[in-house]
Amino acid sequence: MGYLVGVTVLWAFSFSLIGVYLAGQVDSYFAVLTRIALAALVFLPFLRPSLLRGRQRLALMGLGAVQLGVMYIFFYQSFLLLSVPEVLLFTIFTPLYVTLLDDALFGRFTPFHLVTAGLAVAGAAVIRYQGIDSGFWQGFLVVQGANLCFALGQVGYRRLSAGLPAALPRHSIFAWFYLGALVVAVPAFALLGDASALPSTGVHWGVLAWLGLVASGLGYFLWNLGATRVDAGALAIMNNALVPAGLLVNLMIWNRDADLPRLALGGAIIVGSLALNEWWLRRRSPATA
């Protein structure tokens, strides 16, 4: 859980950095490509190809392609179809996908996880809800594509990691994850990117360096590692903990308008769902000396 909490704090800053310094100024596909390339550079020096069989390497590359590459394509396309509040609202369904996919991949069904994930969705909805019009269905489906990709990447890594030796150093194989994402990001920029909107200031490059080396590089490694050390219910809830964390950072540093009562109420619901999940786990676990 400590990894997930730490990355939540890290990514909470990333939202505002992107919104303030990159959005509308730097081509989004170039930003994605740069972030993934820098993240790959962090882990390439540690890569030991002999630690994984060919099929395992392809599986890890596939997870990176889905969780980062394809997810970003869906995500950025959604902003062409929806307003920002609508996009944010529709991301709150990710916890439900996490719990359902985790049960499917591990061959089980845990109804209680749906209860706690549903509470987390309710908490995020309290924070993010704003009215929507009747023409949102196409955009809704595009956002759900992004949500499914992010959820599938997390759950898939949990499943893959469960079949690897516990002593295997994960940092020595994780470069495959980013190389897989590059397989998607490179052609995406070549086909969809705008070469006239490249970074033009030191601030642009500095923010991209931080997002690539730290938020994407260190962040996704620790998030996926943390995903293997918690149950699906806690993982689902932490996906929505990013909502109040991101809003709080934005409010405190950039003084953006925020509905504090909604933030407090929604955050309390999410924290309560996590506490309920932990209580249920303790009740289910056999007593230990």
Automatic annotation (TrEMBL):
It comes from Halomonas kalidii. It comes from the Bacteria. Keywords: Cell membrane, Membrane, Repeat, Transmembrane, Transmembrane helix, Transport. It is found in: Cell membrane. It is a multi-pass membrane protein. The chain crosses the membrane at residues 29-46, 58-75, 81-100, 112-129, 135-153, 173-192, 204-223, 235-254, 260-281. Residues 3-127 form the EamA domain. This is Carboxylate/amino acid/amine transporter.
